[in-house]
């Protein structure tokens, strides 16, 4: 590709509230693949709540003018000189975790998601709200068969983080899981739980989301402050609302575990030891995922077909998609159609 070629991309030029227009659609030089990277033509990109946090400045700026988006399905159009695991024309997935050092205690111990030198797609490096992007080949995913491009995109973050949260929640066999918030990630995690023989109770403010939860097989669906119909063995908090932490903890049975899945959470109110933490209740956070988690999740998705509910948007509507996500107007996962998606 010629060095002067350009592409269209959305950039976060002025992080702040959406009504101030932090995203701008611009013409940018075409990126080039480094020796260990792939250049990918973006077909579709999921719209994630983390993108909203980047756009609104809830997450500190790591790269001024960054192109958000880390749920990318695309086609390899160029590969670096060191790349052997992919070929031009391959369909690949690009997720949030972009690079790790490979040398620290966490990387060597199988916990690369905790690497202090980790870098992230759409935060430290330009992501998928663009016609082309790059990815280190060792952090790209081969995707499971049987899914269209638009169905695959949400799996690359909503699915991966939900799967990591599911693991962190330590749901016992045949247990009772509460899910707080029911957007893109939660509706996939619920299906993983149901396929594993777990009873699922959903607690969320959106009436449409409660309806979807029941369609997918949840045993109950109520408001976020409601008490589930039975004590929970585990819970996952997807809504970025700190006020729900004590609510979820009170709903846990003795020995229960709460996993908090978001990268950003509003302040947590004061907890009362006797009401919220006694009887060996546990609170755990979730930080990204490892590549091993991703590969395991995609094997699960190949064995257990997931119903991926999406709301599509044109590439030119990225700012509207983020606004709809912020306003709980998205059913399932929002998707930007950029290339020729299947």
From TrEMBL:
<dbReference type="GO" id="GO:0004022">
    <property type="term" value="F:alcohol dehydrogenase (NAD+) activity"/>
</dbReference>
<protein>
    <recommendedName>
        <fullName>Probable alcohol dehydrogenase AdhA</fullName>
        <ecNumber>1.1.1.1</ecNumber>
    </recommendedName>
</protein>
<dbReference type="InterPro" id="IPR011032">
    <property type="entry name" value="GroES-like_sf"/>
</dbReference>
<dbReference type="InterPro" id="IPR014187">
    <property type="entry name" value="ADH_Zn_typ-2"/>
</dbReference>
<keyword id="KW-0479">Metal-binding</keyword>
<dbReference type="InterPro" id="IPR036291">
    <property type="entry name" value="NAD(P)-bd_dom_sf"/>
</dbReference>
<dbReference type="InterPro" id="IPR013154">
    <property type="entry name" value="ADH-like_N"/>
</dbReference>
<dbReference type="GO" id="GO:0005737">
    <property type="term" value="C:cytoplasm"/>
</dbReference>
<dbReference type="Pfam" id="PF08240">
    <property type="entry name" value="ADH_N"/>
</dbReference>
<keyword id="KW-0862">Zinc</keyword>
<comment type="similarity">
    <text>Belongs to the zinc-containing alcohol dehydrogenase family.</text>
</comment>
<dbReference type="GO" id="GO:0008270">
    <property type="term" value="F:zinc ion binding"/>
</dbReference>
<feature type="domain" description="Alcohol dehydrogenase-like N-terminal">
    <location>
        <begin position="35"/>
        <end position="144"/>
    </location>
</feature>
<dbReference type="InterPro" id="IPR002328">
    <property type="entry name" value="ADH_Zn_CS"/>
</dbReference>
<keyword id="KW-0520">NAD</keyword>
<keyword id="KW-0560">Oxidoreductase</keyword>
